[in-house]
Amino acid sequence: MVNRINDIAWQAHRGSVAAIIQVLNERLANSGVRTRAIFDDGVLQLLCEANTVDQLEKSNLVNQIQEILESIAPRNIRKVNINSRIVREQQLLWLDEITREPESQLLWSEEIILEQPNTFQQLIRDFQDRQAELGNSNLPKTQSSRPILINNNNPKNLDRRRLLFALSLCSFLLLIGWVGYNLLYRKFKQTTQKSTYPIAQASKPANSKQQKSQSQDLPKEDIFLEAVRIANQASAAGKVAKSSTQWLEIAANWQRASDLMSQVLPSHSRYKEAQIRTKLYQQYSQAAQQEAEKSKS
User: 240 and 257: one domain?
Assistant: First the structure.
């Protein structure tokens, strides 16, 4: 079992800025880039320095840094602002310098957002970290370190560690079960909704709003023909209509046919005819409304 106190990658994952810098410098050593970093106002401010401009080529360096940081997955760090410049003398207040005069201090600056591991991956990693921590506490100590730890092999302490480990394991398993149940439940619910939705829709009569949305979904070249079809239906119904309700329905159909004709594009071969029919159908709709009023009396 590795002692996590000396594990730089683990410390970087826990959010240690010093460990993050060490990991970056080790992986960027071949490119000649050195880094410094400060965590400021929720953003990891990263300074990259090299001897030449070529070593600080933006797209390549940004991709490298983002890949390294996402492999580390540092906790509580999502935004990273990458700053670059030619190497210069050590400056303790380098962030103040580049903030005050970015144009004279920097070659370029780029902010990136780190992709976070999903909940399941994070739970697995946290559980592994916890196991490692518990394992470290049970490691045999060297002869020189034994006097420092008092009653390390006390049965009560061992029982407490075992109990803590068991509770952690149970909590982890319960959480995994809860996440799995929610994922399966959502999938089942979505499948059920998809299978029942067409039946529910078929049982509802189409209202005027639904008809309007359906007409908007028609291809533009079919709008003219659809308007003519509705107008023919209204004309046929007008020959046998008697009640006020029938005439109101006919008036609505003439109006719908008029609205469709008004949507015909100028590029349509029968555009001029559509403009004439728009006004004509509107007049027919008004006439049908008048017939409805007469039928009431």
Answer: yes
Residue 103 and residue 197 share a domain: no
- Contact assessment for residue 288 and residue 247, using Cβ atoms and an 8 Å cutoff: yes
Residues lower than pLDDT 70 in the chain? 1-6, 90-91, 117-159, 182, 185-221, 297
CA–CA distance, 248 with 291 (Å, rounded to integer): 8
Amino acid at site 238: G
What whole-number distance in Å separates Cα of residue 296 and Cα of residue 244? 6
Quote the strand ranges of 100-231, DSSP E: 108-113
Number of domains in the chain: 3
181-205 confidence digits (pLDDT tens): 767 766 666 665 444 334 333 333 3
Using a cut of 0.70, tell me whether the model's pTM lies above it.
no
Half-sphere exposure of 252 (CA within 13 A, CB side): 11
